[in-house]
């Protein structure tokens, strides 16, 4: 009975640990972006990490910034004034990080370079595109309002695509979590049948090797599923 109770507690803990939260089931925005993805921890494989939430916040703020800047430009503001006022009006994830941009816009500095420096690695696509628009406007005299409006439309389309892919991947991600729990359920069933699997797994070298191999394969399966989901969002 002790072995059965221990196996049951292990299975319950693994289930609670890997079960999806309500927000993920509704619509988890997959924004994880790495040039060379690194194997994450088991718990972070399908949990929505804080840096992914921060990237989402930057993308939303970039869209709002473009809209606010377009409105200011349409009202007759100069590009520097429009950008400065837009930065003050938008709720940014890191307002302090964009203070150099606001200062450059007010003082006639290199706004494009300031935007590129302030853009975060993840979620900073909008700021980098805004910097490119600024360069084009300064270099060839193109209308900044039209360029910024086009950037906003592109960012909205990308955000909608990520949300659509997230909705389609919610089922496979949940299935992968369930499959990761099956080994623990197998231990529970074996213990219920009197096979004493924990005694074998923890009682000698062959058992420890089997345990290590099983955990490694389970982790590799989770990582590979996570990698495929990431590639689906960022092809």
Automatic annotation (TrEMBL):
Domain of life: Bacteria
Annotated Pfam families: T2SSF
Membrane topology according to the record: Multi-pass membrane protein
Keywords, sorted A to Z: Cell membrane, Membrane, Transmembrane, Transmembrane helix
Membrane spanning residue stretches: 176-193, 200-224
Annotated Type II secretion system protein GspF domain residues: 66-189
Protein name from the UniProt record: Type II secretion system F family protein
Species whose genome carries this gene: Nonomuraea harbinensis
Protein's cellular compartments: Cell membrane
The keyword Transmembrane is assigned to this record: yes
Presence of keyword Amino-acid biosynthesis: no
InterPro entries listed in its UniProt record: T2SS_GspF_dom
């Amino acid at each position: 009975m002790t072995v059965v109770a221990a196996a049951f507690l292990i299975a319950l803990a693994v289930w609670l640990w890997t079960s999806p939260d309500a927000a993920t089931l509704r619509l988890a925005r997959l924004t994880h972006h790495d040039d060379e993805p690194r194997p994450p921890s088991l718990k972070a494989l399908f949990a929505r990490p804080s840096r992914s939430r921060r990237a989402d916040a930057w993308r939303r703020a970039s869209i709002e910034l473009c809209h606010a800047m377009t409105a200011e430009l349409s009202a007759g503001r100069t590009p520097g004034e429009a950008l400065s006022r837009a930065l003050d009006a938008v709720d940014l994830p890191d307002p302090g990080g964009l203070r150099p941009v606001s200062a450059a816009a007010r003082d006639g500095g290199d706004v494009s370079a300031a935007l590129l420096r302030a853009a975060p690695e993840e979620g900073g696509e909008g700021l980098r595109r805004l910097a490119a628009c600024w360069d084009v406007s300064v270099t060839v005299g193109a209308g900044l309002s039209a360029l910024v409006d086009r950037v906003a439309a592109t960012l909205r389309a990308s955000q909608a695509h990520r949300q659509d892919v997230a909705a389609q991947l919610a089922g496979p991600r949940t299935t992968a979590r369930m499959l990761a729990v099956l080994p623990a359920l197998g231990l529970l069933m074996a213990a219920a049948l009197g096979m004493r699997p924990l005694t074998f797994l923890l009682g000698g070298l062959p058992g420890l090797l089997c345990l290590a191999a099983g955990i490694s394969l389970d982790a590799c399966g989770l990582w590979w599923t996570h990698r495929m989901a990431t590639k689906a969002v960022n092809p």
